[in-house]
Amino acid sequence: MMFGPQVRELLNGLVDLMAGGAEELVVTLELPAEERLESFAEDPLVLPERFAMQVETR
User: Fold this and answer.
1) What residue numbers bound the domain in which 20 lies?
2) pTM, to two decimals
3) Domain count across the chain
């Protein structure tokens, strides 16, 4: 998929939710420290490499 594994997991979770295979979709993001966020505004393409995302369906 063009968007990477994190977006693929999110879209698969949404499909499971809409199809009735899951009742909840939980997305957990771990963002970098705030003092570095200003540097990400200058180069937003680097952001996906700097955060962690977990998608869980229940």
Assistant:
1) 5-57
2) 0.66
3) 1
